[in-house]
Amino acid sequence: MKLFIDTANVADIREAAELGAVGGATTNPTLIAREGRRFEDVIAEISEIVEGPVFAEVVSSDHEGMVSEAEKLAAIRENVVIKIPMCSEGLKAVKILAGRNIKTNMTLVFSPAQALLAALAGASYVSPFLGRLDDIGSEGIGLIRDIVAVFSHMEKRPEIIAASIRSPMHVIDAAKAGCDIATVPPKVIWQMISHPLTDSGIAKFMKDWDAHTARQ
Ligand code: E4P
Predict the structure, then answer these.
(1) Cα-atom radius of gyration of the chain, to the nearest Å?
(2) What is the mean pLDDT of residues 188-197?
(3) Ligand 1, atom 10: closest residue by C-alpha
(4) Which of 215, 25, 34, 177 is nearest to 105 (CA)?
(5) 167 three-class SS
(6) Measured distance CA(216)–CA(212) in Å, rounded
């Protein structure tokens, strides 16, 4: 199980990279817009920090536009992977890009049927969104389990990225379900570090050590 970071904030990516926690970085148009910087500049900077895949999403609504955007983004650095939204035009774009050896991640996947189509079109990754399903009262983790089951019968399959992660429990549930990757917002990575018993344990060790050295 690999962890990717789900943000376009360069400071947070640097911080998480120092922890050894970042195998890749995912962005989307909302995350890029939040930073208020030029898209290509942010992707170029992230792709220098992160050795693994860095995901940049296209915003065209037709496959020709998606392919043309994808080619420009993929030229930024060899670790840039193109996120394509799940739809007919998106599937056509994935198929064309696979033929040109440009890696894609089919995003906004909410059903096993969509994941299967993405796999058949030649996507390198699929991104089922757990949190957004939970938000509408559906069980997000059930979707991951279903996709893992469907892909288990395929010879060549995309890696599954659990996306729209809201909590450390989501990450662990995705890992237990057999997911390849979870893309995790910085806040959830920081939450994964902490445990109240670790904090109190460190405080007690320090206190006992100080008392010991004071007696020497
Ligand atoms: C994944 O690649 C997406 O950027 C992300 O996980 C979306 O999550 P959200 O539902 O918190 O917006």
Answers:
(1) 20
(2) 96
(3) 164
(4) 25
(5) coil
(6) 7
4 close to ligand 1 (CB < 6 Angstrom): no
Looking at residue 21, its pLDDT comes to: 86
Q: Which residues sit opposite 53 in a β-bridge? A: none
Contact 192, 175 (CB under 8 A): no
pLDDT class of 131 with cuts at 50, 70, 90:
very high
- At 133, the amino acid letter reads L
Q: Name the pTM for this structure.
A: 0.95
Count the alpha carbons within 13 Å of 100 in the hemisphere toward its beta carbon.
Answer: 16
CA 173 from centroid of its chain's CA atoms: 15
Give, using CA atoms, the residue closest to atom 12 of ligand 1: 164
Supply the DSSP symbol for 163.
B
So what's the pLDDT on residue 66?
A: 98
- Best probe residue, ligand 1, of 2, 35, 109, 129 (max atoms within 8 Å of C-beta): 129
pLDDT in tens, 21-32: 899 999 999 999
Average pLDDT over residues 177-186: 98
CB 186 within 8 A of CB 8: no
Does residue 129 have a pLDDT over 90?
A: yes
Paired strand residues for 159: 125
pLDDT of residue 128: 98
| Whether the CB of 129 sits within 6 Å of ligand 1 | yes
**Interstrand relation of 181-184 and 25-26 (parallel, antiparallel or unpaired):** unpaired
Q: How far is CA 141 from CA 5, 153, 171, 206, in A?
A: 19, 20, 10, 40
Average pLDDT, the chain: 97
